[in-house]
Amino acid sequence: ARLNAAIPVDLPRAERRKLVAARYLARSHREHPESGCPLAALLSEVPHGGAGFRAAFDGAFAAALLARQEAHAAPLDEDLALMALAIGGLALSRAVADPALSDAILEASRKASGVLADSYEEAEQ
After folding, report:
1. Could you give the 3-state DSSP secondary structure of residue 36?
2. Which tens digit of pLDDT belongs to each residue from 46-69?
3. How large a percentage of the chain has pLDDT more than 90?
C-alpha cells in the first residue's frame, strides 16, 4: 500500500522522483513480490516467454512509463533511465542470496536514483 500512496504534488520533481525510488527500492517491496510491481518480479522471465507474455509485459511497462510521464512531466529518456535503475535494482536485490548484498543493492540504487534526479534538475536550470 505504501508503494501506491499518493506523492505530494507540491514537491519539486527531483524530490518526487526520490520519494518514488525510496518506496520502490524498499526492503518491504523486495520481500513481497506477490503484492508489488510485476515488472521487476517478471523481468528475468520475459525473454523466455511467448509472444502473448511479452506483449503483456510491454503493455504493463508502457502503462508504468505513461504514469511516470504524467506524474513528473519529464523527458522520456530521464524516466526510462530512472525506471531501468529501479526495476533492475529491485530485481537484482531479489536475485542475490546474501541479505547484506541485497540491502546494499537497494541502497546503492536509491542513492544513484537520487543523484540522477538531482542531476537532471540541475541540467534543466
Report:
1. coil
2. 999 999 999 999 999 999 888 888
3. 70
CB 3 within 8 A of CB 99: no
Task: Collect contacts of 88-97 with beta carbons under 8 A, ≥24 apart.
Answer: 88/43, 89/25, 90/24, 90/25, 90/29, 90/30, 90/37, 90/40, 91/40, 91/41, 91/43, 91/44, 93/25, 93/30, 94/30, 94/33, 94/40, 94/41, 95/44
Work out the average pLDDT over 26-34.
94
Place of cell 506477490: 34
Report the pLDDT averaged over residues 99-104.
98
Contact 37, 24 (CB under 8 A): yes
Q: Which amino acid is at 73?
A: A
Whole-prediction pTM: 0.89
Q: For residue 83, give every residue at least 6 positions away whose Cβ sits within 8 Å of its Cβ, in sequence order, or none.
A: 64, 65, 68
Phi, psi of 90 (to 5 degrees): -65, -45
> What is the C-alpha separation between 20 and 29, in angstroms, rounded?
12
